[in-house]
Design goal:
By secondary structure, the chain is an alpha/beta fold. It has helices at 15-30, 45-56, 62-86, 118-125, 152-162, 196-204, 212-221, 273-283, 312-320, 351-361, 385-395, and strands at residues 2-7, 34-39, 91-94, 101-103, 112-115, 129-133, 136-138, 144-146, 167-172, 193-195, 225-229, 237-240, 252-268, 291-293, 300-308, 328-341, 368-372, 375-381. The chain has two domains: 2-173, Carbamate kinase; 253-395, VC0802-like, CATH 3.30.2130. Helix 1 (15-30) crosses helix 3, helix 2 runs antiparallel to helix 3 and helix 10 packs across helix 11 (385-395). The structure holds adenosine-5'-diphosphate, aspartic acid and magnesium ion (MG). Adenosine-5'-diphosphate is lined by residues 8-11, 40, 150, 172-174, 177-178, 180-183, 202, 207-209, 252.
Length: 400
């Protein structure tokens, strides 16, 4: 079997942890498998490098940020290769470029366009463990690019797809996918299986245990993902195509703390105004999530929407430029988004109503709502984040 292992920041967070990853890789290799390992930077490293850059500039060039941030993963890849070689396991470390990963030109958030696996394949054929620095590739101009935060998961899935690996095992500090973040709700239950669609929703709605783009790609390439712990030998959770017709009603609760709300007051109620505002926001690459517009009174209306906290200042600047069309604006970065996810919702009424009632019973005010076929998301005050997660977790009996 050919198996891709991916080790996240905590799993390679110290030299001791890298040594124990080397043990695990050695074991998997000795079981007769071909192993490709994708590594993250040691935990905290990417943040530290970002702070270094901010010492010199608030707006560092994205190309140079990619040069800088990609170095963290190279360090881990080389150290793991050295550790394995010392144990007598033949291993070779590669950058993203050496592994054949070509991306588009969007520095700091690049998309993988193609992978030429021939270099990895010839090293595997020689019996070597191939270790690839995650989170990075190269663009057509030959510059290093990175894939967005959490992007080593994406590297691992893309490599597994290109090599037609039997599985892509993602190792972190939790032993699988739980019904909600076990750090927030200790009663959360581990799942043996979760469908790509549900996992994609959970990841997109804030469960950072897997990067959402990696799940999307795994579904597309039919890569079997397994979430496992690098600290134990527990079974883990398989992420794959839903086969059972009896889908569970609600599979999990996600929390996204990185939300901010903008309320634009007394917006001139005329055709085209929403188009103008949201086109401007999109032109600035601002990720608008939920939008609500109130019924108009006296020819004006209130318009509310959410953006990632890191883009609140940018959003404010965009809205200020509409000053003659609006009465004013309120900003609130102390909100969060809690979401209920489950494919069974498609065929069942009342899931959203149960969420609203449960939060009401705890006196938690819901500030915004959005729904899709398989999720209900609610914006609430940040101070209620954990209570809201636990309340929703119990109302759907996920702890049973
Ligand atoms: P890595 O650094 O290895 O990439 P992450 O920190 O990105 O690992 O992801 C693991 C963390 O994800 C866990 O420590 C856990 O707190 C969090 N998490 C959030 N939601 C879930 C969930 N539904 N199931 C499991 N872990 C979750
Ligand atoms: N080191 C990068 C990050 O922290 C990529 C990753 O760990 O997946 O986002
Ligand atoms: Mg991660």
């Amino acid at each position: 079997m050919l198996i891709v292992h991916k080790y996240g920041g905590t799993s390679v967070g110290s030299l001791e942890r890298i040594a124990s990853v080397a043990d695990r890789v050695e074991r998997a290799k000795k079981e007769g498998n071909d192993i490709v390992v994708v590594v993250s930077a040691m935990s905290g490293e990417t943040n530290k490098l970002t702070e270094y850059a901010q010492h010199f500039s608030n707006t560092p060039a994205k190309r140079e940020m990619d040069m800088l941030l990609s170095s963290g993963e190279r360090v881990t890849a080389a150290l793991l290769a050295i550790a394995l070689q010392e144990k007598g396991v033949d291993a070779v470390a590669m950058t993203g470029r050496q592994a054949g990963i070509v991306t588009d030109n969007s520095h700091t958030y690049a998309r993988i366009e193609s992978i030429d696996p021939s270099h990895m394949e010839s090293e595997i054929a020689e019996g070597k463990v191939v270790i690839v620095a995650g989170f990075q590739g190269i663009n057509s101009a030959g510059s290093v690019t990175t894939l967005g935060r959490g992007g080593s998961d994406l590297s691992a899935v893309a490599i597994a797809g290109a090599l037609k690996a039997d599985a892509c095992e993602i190792y972190s500090d939790v032993d699988g996918i739980y019904t909600t973040d076990p750090r927030i709700e200790p009663k959360a239950k581990k799942m043996d299986f979760i469908s790509y669609d549900e996992m994609l929703e959970l990841a997109s709605l804030g469960a950072k245990v897997l990067q959402n783009r990696s799940v999307e790609l795994a579904k597309k390439l039919k890569v079997k993902m397994v979430a496992k712990s690098s600290f134990s030998d527990a079974e883990g959770t398989v992420i794959g195509e839903e086969e059972s017709m009896e889908a569970v009603l609600v599979s999990g609760i996600a929390l996204d703390r990185n939300q901010a709300r903008v309320t634009v007051r007394e917006v001139a109620d005329r055709p085209g105004i929403a188009a103008e505002i949201f086109t401007k926001l999109a032109d600035e690459q601002i990720n608008v999530d939920m939008i609500i517009q109130n019924a108009s009174t006296d020819g004006t209306t209130n318009l509310g929407f959410t953006v990632p906290q890191s883009q609140l200042n940018q959003a404010q600047a965009v809205i200020e430029a509409f000053d003659h069309d609006i009465g004013g604006m309120d900003l609130d970065d102390s909100v969060c988004k809690v979401s209920v996810v489950g494919v069974g919702m498609k065929s069942h009424a009342g899931v959203a109503a149960a969420a609203f009632s449960a939060l009401a019973a705890e006196n938690i005010n819901i500030e915004m709502i959005s729904t899709s076929e398989i999720k209900v998301s609610m914006i609430v005050a940040e101070k209620y984040a954990e209570l809201a997660v636990r309340t929703l977790h119990s109302v759907y009996n996920l702890d049973k």
